[in-house]
Automatic annotation (TrEMBL), chain A:
Annotated keywords: Cell membrane, Membrane, Transmembrane, Transmembrane helix
UniProt name for this protein: Branched-chain amino acid ABC transporter permease
UniProt cross-references to InterPro entries, sorted A to Z: ABC_transp_permease, LivM-like
Primary location class: membrane
Cellular localization per UniProt: Cell membrane
Membrane spanning stretches: 6-24, 36-64, 84-104, 111-129, 161-187, 208-231, 243-269, 281-304
Membrane topology field: Multi-pass membrane protein
Organism the protein comes from: Pseudogemmobacter lacusdianii
Claim: Secreted is one of the keywords in the record: no
Automatic annotation (TrEMBL), chain B:
Species this chain originates from: Pseudogemmobacter lacusdianii
Residues covered by the ABC transporter domain: 4-234
A GO molecular function held by the record: ATP binding
PANTHER family to which the protein is assigned, alphabetical: ABC TRANSPORTER ATP-BINDING PROTEIN, CONSERVED COMPONENT OF ABC TRANSPORTER FOR NATURAL AMINO ACIDS-RELATED
Keywords annotated in UniProt: ATP-binding, Nucleotide-binding, Transport
This protein's name: ABC transporter ATP-binding protein
Highest taxon in the source lineage: Bacteria
Length: 313, 234
């Protein structure tokens, strides 16, 4: 019964987001599209960090891998959005497999450092191969490539629908995953890895699986970002894009399925508000985060789960 | 051939020989007690058996298969179950989820809910199924730990100090429970409580300074001069 209520809640949120995107004026609907793509990134980060306890500082690499994995074939060979999205997803997953198979030999702080190093090396490689990647300037994804079934993704409504579709699919899969047997293993690894091992669970393999799934999510998000907003740049591979999904997840609630979208929306509008107010906007964002950690350490939905709805996944 | 066999197991930490050439056999269907004074090497020895620590010398076989090089989780999947001395459950998860994890990682195949229900019924925790494990009383935690061990459906169950901190009445229930596990499950019982060991074990191995000091029936061990001296420190 609680399973039914949980699914009803998540589907209702999806319907509400769809309605909001279609009813709001263009500017807000574009913002929402951006938020949903970033929330997809947060969904993937949350599976690794929130559910499995893998504190990665390298997710910018997976996001950028998806972005370039989709953008490069579109730019160089004129691929359309559909296949480009798939190569983006594959690029994110593949890099997660490669980096994870090495980084997961470490844990805790070492894991953070190793993932960070991989991501930095990746970001520098993008600059090094600038003939191919456009280097510092990046490149615009040609409009001819930003097509899905003949609809231009540069137009407001198709763009929003595509962003919503990607997020909705990601949300449904994430919810099914965390409610599954494997989801239970993920939480067990976060809570007490040694105990999980003595229950016959192979921690290395399970964590690598989670990281690959998380990498695919990040890759899809990066690919969608490139295709929907038309720009690919190496700044998306910088550490900032490893920190952002962490902030989304911490604000929305680590280890909650809907936390990512709440956090992405929160940080997005917080940044909007702060940049309009002052050039020292990072200061305001930082201050808000300090307040968050002090008064809402489990994030919005973490608080809801602690106080109101214990079984919220 | 014995079910679980160790030959020449050795593990030194720096200059300290925690386990120093131990031979050991666990026969199918028996309850085997492992005792020894503090620092005798009991915990290191079972860590070697379960794969939490790698031995420097020696071999371990389970049903004739050499498992010396296998990691701990692979040994669990082959039927070597282990319950923790200091209760190490997942406090944030429900009782059901704790046991379900053991079912998933163990040898049990079939309906998850039914297998969890069976393990909980064996220890009498059915009513607490949906409670958060961290809120249980100490006695219930020990039972949950045992239920998780049983849910693995092991061939060999290593119980590390299972009655520590239990009240007298709870210990009586525990003795009955463990006795009921055999002969399907063979039990290696590491225990400080002599009354429990003497009552449950068919055979006892005594460790001292990392070596086997004596091995035999409870009566033989009780009468053994060397064992008495080791315990009295004479």
């Amino acid at each position: 019964m609680t399973g039914g209520r949980i699914w009803a809640l998540h589907l209702a949120v999806l319907v509400a987001l769809l309605a909001a995107g279609l009813l709001l004026p263009g500017y807000h609907s574009t913002n929402l599209a951006r938020i949903l793509v970033l929330a997809t990134f947060a969904l993937g980060y949350n599976l690794a960090f929130g559910y499995t306890g893998l504190l990665s500082l390298g997710h910018a690499m997976f996001f950028a891998a998806g972005m370039y994995g989709a953008g490069l074939p579109a730019w160089h060979w004129g691929w359309e959005a559909g296949p480009a999205l798939l190569t983006g997803a594959a690029a994110g997953g593949l890099l997660a497999l490669l980096a994870g198979s090495l980084a997961l030999r470490t844990a805790g702080v070492s894991f953070m450092i190793v993932t960070l190093m991989f991501a930095q090396a990746f970001a520098l490689s993008l600059l090094y191969f600038s003939d191919w990647t456009g280097g510092d300037d990046g490149f615009a994804v040609p409009t001819t490539a930003r097509l899905v079934f003949g609809h231009a993704l540069s137009a407001d409504v198709p763009r929003f629908l595509a962003a919503w579709g990607v997020f909705a699919l990601g949300l449904v899969i994430a919810l099914a995953l965390v409610c599954s047997r494997f989801g239970r293993v993920m939480v067990a690894l976060r809570e007490n890895e040694e105990r999980a091992r003595m229950l016959g669970i192979n921690p290395y393999r399970a964590k690598l699986q989670v990281l690959v799934i998380s990498g695919i999510y990040s890759g899809v998000a990066g690919a969608a970002y490139a295709l929907l907003f038309g720009y690919v740049g190496s700044s998306f591979a910088s550490i900032q894009y490893s920190i952002l999904p962490m902030l989304y997840v911490l604000l929305g609630g680590a280890g909650t399925v809907l936390g990512g979208v709440i956090g992405a929306a929160g940080i997005f509008y917080l940044t909007e508000w702060a940049t309009a107010l002052t050039s020292a906007w990072l200061f305001l964002v930082g201050l808000a985060l300090v307040v968050l950690v002090l008064f809402l350490p489990k994030g919005v939905l973490g608080w809801v789960r602690a106080k109101l709805w214990r079984n919220l996944p | 051939m014995s079910l679980l066999r160790a030959r020449g197991l050795q593990r030194h930490f720096g200059g300290i020989a925690a386990v120093d050439g131990v031979d050991f056999d666990l026969e199918k269907g028996e309850i085997h007690g492992l005792i020894g004074p503090n620092g005798a090497g009991k915990t290191t020895f079972v860590s070697l058996l379960s794969g939490r620590i790698a031995p420097q010398e020696g071999r371990i076989t389970l049903e004739g298969e050499d498992i010396t090089a296998l990691p701990a989780h692979a040994r669990v999947r082959r039927g070597l179950g282990y319950t923790f001395q200091i209760t190490a459950i997942f406090p944030g998860l429900s009782v059901f989820d704790n046991v379900a994890l053991a079912v998933q990682g163990g040898r049990g195949r079939g309906d998850l809910k039914a297998l969890v229900a069976r393990a909980l019924a064996q220890v009498g925790l059915e009513a607490l199924r949906d409670e958060e494990a961290g809120t249980l009383s100490y006695g219930h935690l020990r039972l949950l730990e045992l239920a998780m061990g049983l849910a693995l459906q092991p061939k060999v169950l290593i119980l590390d100090e299972p009655t520590q901190g239990l009240a007298a009445g709870e210990i009586a229930g525990f003795i009955q429970l463990v006795r009921g596990l055999t002969p399907e499950v063979s039990v290696l019982l590491i225990e400080h409580n002599m009354a429990v060991v003497m009552e449950l074990a068919q055979r006892i191995t005594v460790l001292n300074f990392g070596r086997v000091l004596a091995q035999g029936s409870p009566a033989e061990i009780r009468a053994n001069k060397a064992v008495q001296e080791a315990y009295l420190g004479a």
